[in-house]
């Protein structure tokens, strides 16, 4: 007889939690042992229930799903957390895995695929769909930006010129030009418009 996999659901939308519970009940190998509507409650329930897998939303009212994931993984290094969200920004994905997540799925996933992913994560494997893996690879192009370059990139997104960027951040126009050149190279784009588009699409700049 296969081991029953105990699941904790963390999402601030009541109807979505109910839908997930109903869906997971159709699989005899899975059981929902708790549900939380915020990060703080998720951490407390993890301590009480020690579930095999946590389904974690990214958008929570008190803290982000990434912060809740990091807190649980710090206290319980063997925790198996899978992000289940409607957001697919590369920055969110990157931060979630940095925080200790073992998997990442979007909420429109089919029940069968969700169940398969939960079992995979429970078995100690990572579950990263091909499109998410590509997004992580893409994000690598922006993850090397320094804090100063991120500031400059935010100015680029706002449409500021090199001179305006320099004035805003307290350095010369030539220094701004130097930073912009480095940003284009790291993002592997050819101009400022492409850089702004890439920054927004990848979630590097909000």
Element layout with pairings:
Elements: E1 5-10, H1 14-24, E2 30-36, H2 39-49, E3 53-56, H3 65-75, E4 81-85, H4 90-99, E5 103-106, H5 111-122, H6 130-139, H7 147-157, H8 162-169, H9 173-187, H10 192-201
Parallel strand pairs: 1-2, 1-3, 3-4, 4-5
Helix pairs in contact: 2-3, 3-4, 4-6, 7-9, 7-10, 8-9, 9-10
Account of the protein in words:
The model has no long low-confidence stretch (mean pLDDT about 90). About 55% of the residues lie in helices and about 15% in strands. The protein is α/β, with parallel strands linked by helices. Strand 4 (about 80-85), helix 4 and strand 5 (about 105) form a beta-alpha-beta unit. The chain has helices at about 15-25, 40-50, 65-75, 90-100, 110-120, 130-140, 145-155, 160-170, 175-185, 190-200, and strands spanning about 5-10, 30-35, 55, 80-85, 105.
Core attributes:
206 residues; alpha/beta; Rossmann fold; Arc Repressor Mutant, subunit A; 2 domains; five-stranded parallel β-sheet; 10 helices; 53% helix
């Amino acid at each position: 007889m296969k081991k029953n996999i105990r699941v904790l659901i963390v999402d601030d939308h009541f109807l979505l939690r109910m839908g997930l519970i109903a869906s997971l009940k159709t699989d005899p190998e899975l059981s929902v042992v708790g549900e939380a509507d915020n990060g703080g409650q998720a951490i407390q329930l993890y301590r009480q229930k020690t579930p095999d897998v946590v389904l974690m939303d990214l958008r929570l009212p008190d803290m982000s799903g990434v912060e809740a994931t990091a807190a649980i993984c710090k206290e319980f290094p063997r925790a198996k957390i899978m992000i289940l969200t409607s957001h697919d920004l590369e920055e969110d994905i990157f931060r979630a895995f940095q925080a200790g997540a073992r998997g990442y799925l979007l909420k429109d996933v089919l029940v069968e695929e969700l169940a398969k992913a939960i079992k995979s994560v429970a078995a100690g494997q990572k579950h990263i769909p091909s499109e998410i893996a590509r997004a992580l690879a893409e994000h690598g192009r922006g993850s090397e930006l320094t804090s100063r370059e991120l500031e400059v990139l935010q100015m680029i997104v706002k449409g500021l010129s090199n001179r305006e960027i320099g004035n805003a951040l307290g350095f010369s126009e030539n220094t701004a030009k130097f930073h912009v050149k480095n940003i284009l190279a790291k993002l592997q784009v050819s101009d400022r418009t492409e850089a702004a588009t890439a920054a927004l699409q990848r979630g590097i700049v909000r």
